[in-house]
Amino acid sequence: MFSLALNTIINNICNSFKCFLLRHLYLFLSQINKNAIRFTNFLRDNSIPFFIFRQFIHSNSLVIYRYFSFFMLTLKKREEIMSKVGSIFSNLSIFLISVLIGALYFFFPYFKQRKEVPLKEYIQANKLRLTFSAFFVLGILSRTMFLDLLPRGLNQDELSAGYDAYAIAHFGKDRNGIVMPVHLIAWGSGQNALYSYLMIPFVLLFGLNPISLRLPMGMIGSLTLFLVFDLCKRLTKNEKVSLFFMLFVLINPWHLMKSRWALEANIFPDLVFYGAYLLIRGYKEKKDYMFYISSFILGLSSYSYGTSYFFLFFFVITVLALFVFKYKMKYYKALIYLGIIGLTVIPIILFIYVNVYNKNDIHLLWFTVPHLNQNRFQSVTNIFSSTFFKDSFQHLKEGLKLIITQNDHLPWNQIEGIGTIYFLSLPFTLFGLFHKEKENEETLWIFRIFFIVSIMMSCIVDVNINRFNIVYPPLIFFTFLGLYSISKKVSSFKKVMTLSYAAYFIAFMVIYNTSWNASISYQFYEGFYEACRYASSLNENCTIYTTSNINMPYVYALFADETDVNTFIETVQYANEGAAFEQVKSFGNFVFSLPYRIEENNIYIVETNNNKYQNTDLSSYEIKEFGHYLVINTCI
């Protein structure tokens, strides 16, 4: 927000009167202190954040001077500084807000009784609440801090969703020219739209950058931690057990990893859990508004991932049938529940109709239901296959194998040797599945249905961890339930398991922050986004040639350059227009292939370890390194 506001101010001032008054005022004020002038030049040359300047200024007369000096930095240097300052500012803000949230949770009850109860006495009486607050802050920070550094680099799916969020926020349409789409066309075969819409406020506040891209996912994961604690506390009436359940989710590798990058499908399991949380509370506490809000949340989850269509139908119907026939819920409540979901998913039903029956776009109020180049729902599922039963059996085997091995060989989904829920967990998952508890029977049945329908869903999908992500909330739930039920019977079990999981978590965090992060930087093309950003700031009249050894390099350029979506639509050239995955040859001044030789007045982005021009004399050109990429500037 700070970066965006300051950039706007600078641009407006510099465009007004061609900075005539500003320059003369700058020259006048610069005479006040010669030392301040020398220090300003040092900052300009070394790209040090300008706010450090105030530590060296003691005279009140220089307040105006230091701001105007900042305005006079060159555009290139200013962008570098603002990028660094913006990252520091964003991460510091996240830290402070996280601590504030934890402090508010701990102190909120105290505000009501502060006149009767001394603070020291309140802290002594609420040590468990203080412990939860501290761990909750740790959970938020583990999912939201340094998102621009871990994981290193950016994935093309993240950038696609992020740029479309930017395009919709500023121009009301995505990069394919669809006005307010209920589902993104993206590459051609579609991308779920909900996460892009959730990103819009963050893009408007913080600009288009890795933090605004990933922060909504981290916040969604953090909210899940709190709701896990709250649900367990209401069910067990035991805050200590609830704290351990929250900690169990906090250290879960799958949940932590998926919360730190912006794959749009990864909000699906969290949203279904939110719906289940409200459903359980609404039913058990007889709060109809929570019960009905849960139906809206579940309906909303259909916009998060394509496999939700199958899951929601069977999950909702089965749960309502259970409540009506076993627990004697009124029929009209089930009908209202279905009605709310039905209204929520009307655009998705129209989307399926348009693409299955090959119809034209439909305009619904201010939204558009788009026709995709290829219906990806049909391409990644076997529902329409002539060998449906054979494929379903094979997919089911693969799904069960994935649960057991906890490895889909995709590095962004899991870490070899660690797994998704830790390898020692599965025996306890089975204990939890068969756990019986009369008081919370409805909750156990909801999560059993959750788990069974998730397994059924694997029959229709060629599974990997992110496509099968809906199975993990019930897996985690039943694993902890199994651990809890055994710990009540075996006194030493709790200590042994606490130490075992703590050791596993430490090993996970060491690998995740070191070797895994270094390795994933190649999968996520670390430095390519920064190289595109830097290249686009150099000279708008120069053509920028980039390596083509990137998965969809054009979205990196769109994201880095913050390209006007109308410019992209008018200038884009496709190599295979109309395909499921359209390959962009060029747009604007970007060309996504490298010429045979380097020529003057162009900019080149090449790989550091596969430099096509390594045998060319580059000594007369400006070369700058970004991660795994070099920018060669011949426009000097």
End-to-end Cα distance: 33 Å
Task: Name the beta content range.
Answer: 5-15%
Structural class: mainly alpha
**Strand arrangement in the largest pleated sheet:** 6-7-8-5-9-11-10
Total number of beta strands: 11
Q: What is the secondary structure topology, with strand pairs?
A:
Elements: H1 2-15, H2 20-30, H3 34-46, H4 63-71, H5 75-113, H6 119-125, H7 127-144, H8 156-171, E1 183-184, E2 191-192, H9 194-206, H10 210-236, H11 239-250, H12 253-258, H13 268-284, H14 288-300, H15 308-325, H16 331-344, H17 346-356, E3 362-364, E4 367-369, H18 376-380, H19 388-405, H20 426-433, H21 441-457, H22 472-487, H23 493-513, H24 515-523, H25 528-538, E5 543-546, H26 553-561, H27 565-571, E6 573-574, E7 584-587, E8 590-591, E9 602-607, E10 622-626, E11 629-633
Parallel strand pairs: 5-8, 5-9
Antiparallel strand pairs: 1-2, 3-4, 6-7, 7-8, 9-11, 10-11
